[in-house]
Specification:
Blueprint: E1 4-7, H1 13-32, H2 34-44, H3 47-55, E2 59-65, E3 70-79, E4 82-93, H4 102-111, E5 119-125, H5 129-137, E6 141-146, E7 158-164
Parallel strand pairs: 4-5
Antiparallel strand pairs: 1-2, 2-3, 3-4, 5-7, 6-7
Helix pairs in contact: 1-2
Length: 168
């Protein structure tokens, strides 16, 4: 399948929700169980939350689109109080499209969207070894750990990774 990376629009919200729901369950059910993952998806990936990210100034929301469906999504935004740092909030690829370079292509585009940034940061759930390995291949290194991934009181520990961005 050939995907083209483009900026997301409000018309993509439901397709994005579908990708996030499918991908979250495939990625996190083994660690947290389907019930907790369903709660995470419901609160973190509501239509309103996705729309707000798409419309956010200082943010970039991308989708990989094959003309019929969305195979992956990526969202990054400038980090509050750290003007040279961008936070990669989401980079998810539909399970059926994984291993085809979709995540790498979305990331490559996101890297160019913040010309003044020097560092990109991402938080990876501690148990998500596959994602950790993916980010290492992209040039990220572990810089810290945290107890609460995704939301306060989540009880989900995470690894914080960073990558120095090439000067533009």
């Amino acid at each position: 399948m050939v995907y083209f990376v483009r900026t997301a629009g409000e018309e993509d919200v439901e397709k994005i929700r579908s990708v996030l729901t499918e991908t979250f369950h495939a990625s996190y059910d083994p660690f947290y169980g389907p019930e907790q993952v369903a709660r995470m998806v419901g609160s973190w990936h509501s239509a309103g939350a996705i729309k707000a990210r798409i419309l956010k100034k200082d943010g970039e929301f991308l989708v990989a689109d094959d003309g019929r469906s969305i195979g992956g999504i990526g969202y990054a935004a400038k980090y509050p109080k750290m003007d040279k740092t961008v936070m990669l909030h989401q980079l998810y690829v539909r399970p059926s499209a994984q291993g085809e370079g979709v995540g790498r292509d979305i990331f490559a585009e996101l890297e160019t969207c913040f010309p003044d940034a020097e560092i990109m940061r991402v938080e990876v759930a501690l148990q998500n070894v596959r994602a950790f390995s993916f980010y290492e291949r992209l040039g990220f290194v572990e810089v810290d750990r945290m107890e609460e991934w995704g939301a306060p009181n989540s009880g989900l520990p995470a690894i914080i990774m960073e990558k120095r961005l090439a000067s533009h």
